[in-house]
Design goal:
- This protein has a single domain, classed as Maf protein (Alpha-Beta Complex).
- The chain contains five helices and six strands, in the order βαβαβαβββαα.
- It has 199 residues and is of the alpha/beta class.
- Helix content is 29%, strand content 22%.
- Strands 2-1-3-4-5-6 form a six-stranded mixed beta sheet.
- It starts with 8 loop residues before the first strand and ends with a helix.
- The protein binds inosinic acid (IMP).
- The site of inosinic acid has 17 residues, from strand 3.
Length: 199
């Protein structure tokens, strides 16, 4: 396991503003300097879409080799039991080129049809890669159920239609701190920190 020293410079290998905001917030206590792939002018690589881990690895390695810095990527998605785990790895694609999640959420609801199975979960794989090709991946998951109609203006993506297990509010109704208490991203992040950012 390779570790990242305090004061190191690290690239956040994502062009998704919602993820960038959440990851930057989670990283704040770690004492590293973060710069986004967009700010460095790095291109967004093609994802293979075969698994969260494979996609996360592609994104982190591409940013690490292009920048010469360690790079952290996030590949994540919304999975619905009644849809056999879809949209899953293609969650972003369901929002189309305009990245509009209202029609994506409507599509999830429409495809669920009359199913009484409302179980859903988010998955996040964080991958930390170095310019020499070394990479470590960590997975986090949160179980819950689909809420309809969507509720709340906070968060991003499918947040307004997901209620985590044991709660009543959607992620769209929670503030960021409340979401971090259960989220797939925060859970993957805790594993990453334990392994790569010992402090
Ligand atoms: P990708 O990892 O870039 O392929 O995109 C993941 C997509 O999954 C995002 O664009 C969102 O649609 C969805 N997603 C991942 N994490 C979250 C989350 O925390 N809240 C809501 N939607 C999410």
């Amino acid at each position: 396991m390779r570790t990242v020293p305090r004061g190191a410079r690290l690239v956040l290998a994502s062009h998704n503003q919602g993820k960038l905001r959440e990851i930057a917030e989670l990283m704040e206590p770690l004492g590293v300097e973060v710069v986004s792939a967009g700010a460095l002018g790095l291109p967004e690589p093609e994802e293979g879409e075969e698994s969260f881990a494979a996609n996360a690895r592609i994104k982190a390695l591409s940013a690490a080799t292009a920048s010469g810095l360690p790079a952290l990527s996030d590949d994540s998605g919304f999975c619905v039991s009644a849809l056999g785990g879809a949209p899953g790895v293609v969650s972003a694609l369901w929002a189309g080129p305009g990245k509009d999640f209202r029609p994506a959420m409507e599509r999830v609801r429409r495809e669920m049809g009359d199913s009484t199975d409302t179980r859903a979960w988010f998955v996040c794989v964080l991958c930390l890669a170095w310019p020499d090709g070394h990479a470590e991946c960590f997975e986090g998951r949160v179980e819950g159920h689909v809420a309809w109609p969507p509720r709340g203006q906070n968060g991003h993506g499918y947040d307004p239609m997901f209620v985590p297990e044991g709660g009543a509010l959607t992620y769209g109704e929670m503030d960021q701190g409340e979401k971090h208490a259960t989220s797939h991203r925060a859970r993957a992040f805790a594993k990453l920190v334990a392994a790569c950012f010992p402090r």
